[in-house]
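Consider the following input, taken from an annotated entry for Transposase (Rhodanobacter lycopersici).
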Amino acid sequence: MPRICNPAQHRLRVGRCSLPGQVYLLTTVTHQRRPVFVDTELARLAARCIGDAGLWAAGRCLCWVLMPDHWHGLVELGEGDDLARVMQRFKGVLSRRIGQQIRLAGPLWMHGYHDHALRRDEDLAAAARYVIANPVRAGLAACPLDWPYWDAWFVGDGPDCLL
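Applying the prediction step yields:
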């Protein structure tokens, strides 16, 4: 399948820089927004991959949520990491693992991803709550704790930390 190029796509990369220790809010969507992860087994497989610290190399994933057709995460880059390599590794590992389970018609992920570097004045816990509340905003769960496909570094603080 030929890759369709968006002439403005290069502008999305202008100014994108990868800084070790910087936390980024990352989002990527499935190809044609197919709800691949409504399948419980595929969602569980993806969650196991996402939770594997080796996936993040020198960095770490602080928080993530897997939705039926997209993924959000807060990722802190490690020394020597850059956003493009981290997302390429993320998408590649999940694509291979999912591809071992089912035959997908086309790629698993859309090309590209959205990133936002958190500024110093942005509250990391608030950004994490925003990420894990995504299923509530989408009408898929009444409470973030009702959605099974997420994780966050502060879960030990109890459910009140999510409010």
